[in-house]
Amino acid sequence: MTYSEEPETLDRNLAIEMVRVTEAAAMAAGRVLGWDEKELADGVAVEAMRRALNGVAIEGEVVIGEGEKDEAPMLYIGEKVGAGGPPRVDIAVDPIEGTTLVAHGMPGAVSVITVAEPGTMLRTHVAYMEKIAVGPGARGAIDITRPPGENLHRIAEALGTPTRDLTVVVLDRPRHTDLLAEIRATGARLRLIPHGDVLGTIMSAMEDFTEVQVLMGIGGATEGVVGACAVRALDGDMQARFWPRDDAEVRLLREEGYEPNQILTVDDLCSSQDISLALTGISDSDLVRGVQYGPRHIRTHSLAMRSRSHSLRWISTVHDVSWLRASGRRLALEDPRVHAER
After folding, report:
1. pTM of the shown model
2. How many helices (H) and strands (E) does the chain have?
3. What angle do CA 112, 294, 19 make, to 5 degrees?
4. How far apart are CA 308 and CA 145, in angstroms?
5. Mind listing the pLDDT tens digit for each residue in 174-198?
6. Where are the alpha helices (DSSP H) in 109-164?
7. Residue 161: CB partners within 8 Å, gap ≥ 6?
8. How does pLDDT run across 27-42, given as a tens digit for each residue?
9. Is the bond into 136 cis (omega within 30 degrees of 0)?
10. How far is C-alpha 99 from the chain's CA centre?
11. Which is it for the CA torsion 150, 223, 174, 107, positive or negative?
């Protein structure tokens, strides 16, 4: 039987298998926390993630990756990864969500990967999109074409809570000045984040586990697709629309078959029925703790979610340093500058 004849449902729980992949990237990147070395951090994380991915029994293709956006040498869009399948899967990777956070030693940096059925994740070369995301309790209450204040009132009504009890997460950017004023006018609370809105999107959909109920604002388009996979896995809701920065991006959108004001639902962003997502903390965040290094052990903290089983698993792992050394996992152990000199 050829791979194309295999059922496309993912019978294994790949979310747990992918935790090993994000652990590898996080342990490598965490070595340079606070070094102000974004490229070095990204380089070791990419290499560690790629090596770990190629040890997983899948036939994977990177559909959202480092290559075309950041000109990284590996994990580029279209790259084939895995030790061989089945299953065939599409993969979205972000070895470091928040490279600036790692460079400055700030909280909130994670390594994240999403796996889904082939052809189910939106692909675009446009850099940014406007987004709004919520959890299951507010599903159906959002409309990105309406003013932010109206959306917040509709979300509060769906959740059965006063608008003042909502917490909205927004990227701290000058482009959000008007948005922030409108949110504050409703009485809702604000959580401003400096970089990386994938984590904020996930938090907004996990209404029983975090204090955040809503994500709003303009952020990366690829991050929007990764976040949408998590929202869908969590039975939340999300809408987006492209935010082209100039006429060239408008033309690019149309070449890709989209319109600048087109409304994208969570199903447009990710239509997979079987999504696996894993993330591991590099530095501490609301969802996972950062990597902790010791002379004999390295500790990691991860979250694995799978839409098919509606499961969430927080995984704390103690890695034996002597075993990592014996198995050749040097990126988790050595000074990353040694890697850069090679």
Report:
1. 0.91
2. 12, 14
3. 20
4. 31
5. 999 999 999 999 999 999 999 889 9
6. 148-159
7. none
8. 999 999 999 999 999 9
9. no
10. 13
11. positive
